[in-house]
């Protein structure tokens, strides 16, 4: 999962093939590491794995859920947001609709759907959940469980500007092409760790969002 360097060629992206592969490879079993600090989500990068071990010892686990909304257009796209500039965490960054899992949420799926409604006004009526992707850990203690979903076109968004400045779509073919998966590194307490970036036009997609997109590519196409 999320290996920093993996030589692989471009893939041909078709909506029917993507959804068929996703339905065959994903399910709705909730990984115990979402809540258990003793289970460290594996990243495939030794530096990141060590960072997540340290974070788990020093910070409480913060379970979260996001929606990887794949819009079923003739050329399929993924819906992303740009977080509001005034937020305390990850201000201005590109993200999936999502957030922390509340005690009132019936499941991580329910949390992802609720957050998508609250942030961008995406109605559940247009969303067909497919399954959970692998658990993703961050340096801030978040344990993120992404839900991959097929979204029917025709929805209208209503941006909640207290949380999100913008919502936009990026072609699935761009995001699932490993040629566009740049590998960068940074230091964490003397250790080098790797992360992905996928710049698209004026949008700089990086960090956890790019990491989860890379995981999506590896789960759906590289095996």
From TrEMBL:
<dbReference type="InterPro" id="IPR045121">
    <property type="entry name" value="CoAse"/>
</dbReference>
<keyword id="KW-0460">Magnesium</keyword>
<dbReference type="Pfam" id="PF00293">
    <property type="entry name" value="NUDIX"/>
</dbReference>
<dbReference type="InterPro" id="IPR015797">
    <property type="entry name" value="NUDIX_hydrolase-like_dom_sf"/>
</dbReference>
<keyword id="KW-0479">Metal-binding</keyword>
<protein>
    <submittedName>
        <fullName>8-oxo-dGTP pyrophosphatase MutT (NUDIX family)</fullName>
    </submittedName>
</protein>
<feature type="domain" description="Nudix hydrolase">
    <location>
        <begin position="61"/>
        <end position="196"/>
    </location>
</feature>
<keyword id="KW-0378">Hydrolase</keyword>
<keyword id="KW-0464">Manganese</keyword>
<dbReference type="InterPro" id="IPR000086">
    <property type="entry name" value="NUDIX_hydrolase_dom"/>
</dbReference>
């Amino acid at each position: 999962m999320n290996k920093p360097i993996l030589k692989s060629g471009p893939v041909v992206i078709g909506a029917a093939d993507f959804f068929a592969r996703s339905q065959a490879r994903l399910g709705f079993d909730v990984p115990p590491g979402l809540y258990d600090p003793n289970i460290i989500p594996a990243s495939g990068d030794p530096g990141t794995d060590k960072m997540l071990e340290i974070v788990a010892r020093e910070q409480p686990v913060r379970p979260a859920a996001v929606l990887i909304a794949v819009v079923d257009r003739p050329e399929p796209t993924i819906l992303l947001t740009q977080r509001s500039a005034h937020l305390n965490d990850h201000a201005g960054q590109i993200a999936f609709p999502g957030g922390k899992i509340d005690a009132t949420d019936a499941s991580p799926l329910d949390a992802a759907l609720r957050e998508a409604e609250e942030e961008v006004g995406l109605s559940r009526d247009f969303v067909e959940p497919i399954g959970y992707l692998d658990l993703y850990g961050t340096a801030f203690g978040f344990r993120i469980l992404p839900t991959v979903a097929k979204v029917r076109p025709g929805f209208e968004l209503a941006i909640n500007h207290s949380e999100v400045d913008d919502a936009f779509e990026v072609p699935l073919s761009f995001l699932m092409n490993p040629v566009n998966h740049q590998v960068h590194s940074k230091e964490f307490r003397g250790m080098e760790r790797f992360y992905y970036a996928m710049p698209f036009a004026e949008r700089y997609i990086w960090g956890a969002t790019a990491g989860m997109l890379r995981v999506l590519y590896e789960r759906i196409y590289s095996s």
